[in-house]
TrEMBL record:
Transmembrane segments: none
Organism lineage string: Bacteria, Pseudomonadati, Pseudomonadota, Gammaproteobacteria, Pseudomonadales
Saccharopine dehydrogenase NADP binding domain location: 9-136
GO cellular component: plasma membrane
Protein name: Uncharacterized conserved protein
GO BP of this protein: glycolipid biosynthetic process
Pfam families xref list: Sacchrp_dh_NADP (PF03435)
Gene3D superfamilies reported in the protein's UniProt record: NAD(P)-binding Rossmann-like Domain
Length: 408
């Protein structure tokens, strides 16, 4: 790659999650020191205010609009990696992906919008391969802990058993933290699109919709759709809101790595709600609440009420205190074809959606800029596990408050 001034540019630095990310980068890497980075966004005034908030008057800034291809190309040509938090990505994200693949610039983001990721792969993968741009979606709570959590479990299984587990389940044991306006806007947008698009509903029902053509399994994938008892953990389960994106990323990772988890690999995710009647009632309640949200977001009048009165607005999210007191604890159980089992866990030390997500996204960007050589991973659409693997696990453990452990 020709010389570029910055290692990283944070596009959408003034978003709720972008501000947390910038604070993290200042604290972890400084400004203008070893890591050269800049902030970017559509509003010069807001970027200026962010610099004052961060106490970093000399932090370089770039003004560009999400729809302005010339401005985005000029931004991309100044940096090796762009991190984007400008979402909903299905509404604002495509031009930047286009600019990155045109200029051979690496990119990572926080989207969890399956239908948009699929469109980007279909439209831009060939161009990314020829320009050398590495595009990595889903570098936040969806889907890094799931994707690297499975990668970690399979590595341990291969060490112990000489083979991977052909079935893995992830269970959210505990989590604390709120939703932000941006995440809710993305969820409402996909529900709205799906309500009027049967092809999209079909795609959203296919667990292999993000895997390369031809990668599928003949076995039916498990899927927790309602309250259900889990004999492995002895608890009740409810559907997990992020499962649809995480499951598809894990299957894509398996395919991009050359199916090390096996062609017939089974994977599912759910939330633990506890034991006995209390656990069952909680599972029923969560299932009903999720169904109500989806039904409410699908039609115009209730969607308006949700957006206007119920959910946080864009730019809003959990307070610094609830980010700090937030955490998550994910449990994984894997089973080999002959019944041997392995349990692992992944934890994070901030609220999943923002405090921890911002640190994961920052480390993914730094990992792209510093650790992953173009000769090892060429241009194309990658997943966190398939492009980063061990290097990101180590970064997250050392810098970002995550743990990856076996439970023996
Ligand atoms: N995967 C995960 O775990 C995870 C977690 C958190 C968030 N997310 C996703 O990350 C995204 C950001 O979330 P958030 O809550 O931080 O959102 P937010 O606060 O609503 O911020 C949205 C950002 O987009 C910018 N923007 C909007 N239109 C633009 C345009 N035309 N040109 C340039 N910038 C534009 C806004 O700029 P201004 O500041 O100038 O208004 C703002 O910075 C959402 O899509 C959300 O779903 C994912």
């Amino acid at each position: 790659m020709e010389h570029r001034e910055y290692d990283l540019v944070v596009f959408g630095a003034t978003s709720f999650v972008g501000k947390i990310l910038c604070r993290y980068l200042v604290d972890q890497y400084g400004t203008g020191a070893d890591l050269k980075w800049a902030i970017a966004g559509r509003s010069e005034a807001k970027l200026g205010a962010l610099k004052r908030e961060l106490g970093e008057a000399a932090l370089p800034m770039i003004v560009a609009d999400a729809d302005d291809i010339a401005g985005l190309n000029a931004m991309c040509l100044q940096t090796r990696v762009v991190i984007s938090t400008v979402g909903p990505y299905a509404l604002f994200g495509e031009t930047l992906v286009q600019a990155c693949v045109q200029t051979g610039t690496d990119y990572c983001d926080l989207t969890g919008e399956v239908q948009w990721i699929r469109q980007m792969i279909v439209r831009y993968e060939d161009q990314a391969r020829s320009s050398g741009a590495r595009i990595v979606h889903c570098c936040g709570f969806d889907s890094i802990p799931s994707d690297l959590g499975v990668w970690f479990l399979q590595n341990e299984a291969t060490k112990d058993f000489g083979e991977p587990c052909n079935q893995v389940s992830m269970r959210v044991k505990a989590a604390r933290g709120g939703l932000s306006g941006g995440t809710v806007a993305s969820l409402i947008n996909v529900t709205k699109e799906a309500a009027s698009n049967p092809q999209l509903r079909k795609e959203l029902a296919n667990p292999f919709s993000l895997a390369p053509a031809g990668h599928k399994s003949s076995k039916r994938q498990p899927n927790v759709k309602g309250a259900q008892y889990d004999p492995d953990f002895g608890v009740w389960l409810a559907p997990f809101m992020m499962a649809p994106i995480n499951v598809r990323i894990v299957h894509r990772s398996n395919a991009l790595q050359g199916t090390p988890y096996g062609q017939e690999f089974l994977y599912d995710e759910a939330m633990m709600t506890g034991k006995g009647l209390k656990g069952r009632l909680a599972a029923l309640g969560i299932t009903a609440g999720l169904g109500g949200f989806i039904a409410g977001a699908a039609i115009k009048p209730t969607r308006w009420i949700l957006e206007r009165f119920v959910v946080p607005k864009p730019g809003e999210g959990p307070s610094p205190e609830s980010q700090k007191s937030g955490f998550y604890d994910l449990r994984f159980i894997g089973q080999t074809a002959d019944g041997r089992t392995l349990r692992t866990k992944v934890t994070g030390d901030r609220d999943p959606g923002y405090g921890s997500t911002a640190k994961m996204l920052g480390e993914a960007g730094v990992c792209l800029a510093r650790d992953v050589r173009n000769t090892d991973r060429a241009g194309g659409f990658w997943t966190p596990a398939s492009i980063f693997g061990e290097t990101l696990v180590e970064r997250l453990k050392t810098n970002a408050g995550l743990t990856f452990d076996r439970i023996d």
